[in-house]
């Protein structure tokens, strides 16, 4: 089955494929962090996304904001790359620049357990007559803060696994191994349709690669992932989504301050795919030595079994020893 799923990812895009009829989209499930992990898995398999209603607290969010704000203020202009349109300021190398984001958000056990469930690759192969089962664990692909101001138009709905040239086949239900990315979004403010909350299409992670049908006005099946501070949004990389339109100021900040929608975003990928952010150039080894073990491993400082990512034929974590 895993082989067939991998083959499906590589199937060339066939523009003659017709989009199948789809029922109305469901909502986005909200779960408390005390819920069993199985419920988070079920929500992601069914809808492609889920919200953790009590992911963090306002004090922790403010601490993260204190850490990223100097980097945001250092930017005079927004980035123009991919879906960014020149208005959005960003903080790259985020988990190195915000210890709170690194250890409280990215290293959060629920997110990491879900990464392990959806992205870890376990394979049995043969050495002569002896079977050997090995596991490749997930990696951090990118960590970045987005600071989006009023006047920013909506993004086109898209899949983030496009960067890995992922291929998809239509499916009635989810099969493990279908995805190569899992994202975590932690808003630093309340997000609503008015300030451009991310638009998502629940269930679209099961679609194939034919041109999607979002209706004549682009809203068919689309839901606004509105959140309060303290909530977090997790989604599969195959889910269609896009930032909403933040058309005009809402008057939610003090006079003279920049009004914006600030979101901390992290994506993890399978351990055999290239990371979007080159972690070994982004995070100096002396800094990495101070990170928690799970973060070190997710940055690639642990060999992917059986033989990927070594230094001198050894797992690179030996270089982190005191």
Give a written overview of the molecule:
It holds the Pfam family PhyH. InterPro entries: Phytyl_CoA_dOase-like (IPR008775). This is Phytanoyl-CoA dioxygenase. Helices cover 23% and strands 19% of the residues. Helix 3 (58-73) packs across helix 5 (99-106). It is of the alpha+beta class. The chain has one domain (30-121, 134-319): Jelly Rolls (Sandwich), CATH 2.60.120.620. The protein is globular and about 70 Å long. The strands form 3 sheets. A 7-stranded mixed sheet has the order 1-2-10-7-12-6-3. The longest helix is centred in the first third of the chain and has 16 residues, at 58-73. It is built from 9 helices and 12 strands. A hairpin with a 2-residue loop joins strand 4 (121-127) and strand 5 (130-136). The protein starts with a helix and ends in a 24-residue tail after the last helix.
Briefly note the CATH topology name: Jelly Rolls
The computed structural class is: alpha+beta
CATH homologous superfamily classification: q2cbj1_9rhob like domain
Order of helices and strands: HEHEHEHHHEEEEEEEEEHHH
Give the number of domains.
1
Report the sheet-strand fraction.
15-25%
Percentage of residues assigned to helices:
10-25%
Q: What is the residue-averaged pLDDT? A: 90
* Order of strands, widest sheet: 1-2-10-7-12-6-3
């Amino acid at each position: 089955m895993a082989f067939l799923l991998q083959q499906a990812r590589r199937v060339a895009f066939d523009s003659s494929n017709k989009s199948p009829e789809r029922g109305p989209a469901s909502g986005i499930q909200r779960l408390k962090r005390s819920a069993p992990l199985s419920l988070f898995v079920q929500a992601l398999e069914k809808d492609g996304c889920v919200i953790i209603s009590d992911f963090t607290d306002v004090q922790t969010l403010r601490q993260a904001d204190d850490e990223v704000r100097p980097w945001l203020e250092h930017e005079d202009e927004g980035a123009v790359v991919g879906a960014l349109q020149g208005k959005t300021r960003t903080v790259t190398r985020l988990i190195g620049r915000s210890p709170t984001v690194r250890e409280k958000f990215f290293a959060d056990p629920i997110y990491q357990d879900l990464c392990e469930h959806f992205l870890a690759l376990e394979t049995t192969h043969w050495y002569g007559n002896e079977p050997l089962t090995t596991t490749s664990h997930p990696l951090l692909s990118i960590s970045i803060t987005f600071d989006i101001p009023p006047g920013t138009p909506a993004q086109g709905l898209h899949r983030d696994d496009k960067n890995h040239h992922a291929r998809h086949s239509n499916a009635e239900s989810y099969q493990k191994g279908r995805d190569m990315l899992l994202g975590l979004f932690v808003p630093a403010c309340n997000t609503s349709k008015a300030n451009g909350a991310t638009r998502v299409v629940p269930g679209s992670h099961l679609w194939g690669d034919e041109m999607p049908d979002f209706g004549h006005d682009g809203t068919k099946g689309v839901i606004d992932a509105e959140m309060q501070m303290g909530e977090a949004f997790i989604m599969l990389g195959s889910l269609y989504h896009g930032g909403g339109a933040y058309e005009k100021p809402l008057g939610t900040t003090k006079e003279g301050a920049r009004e914006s929608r600030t979101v901390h975003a992290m994506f993890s990928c399978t351990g055999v795919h290239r990371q979007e952010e080159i972690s070994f150039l982004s995070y100096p080894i002396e800094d990495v030595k101070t990170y928690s073990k799970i973060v070190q491993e997710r940055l690639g400082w642990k060999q992917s079994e059986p033989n990927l990512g070594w230094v001198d034929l050894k797992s690179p974590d030996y270089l982190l020893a005191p």
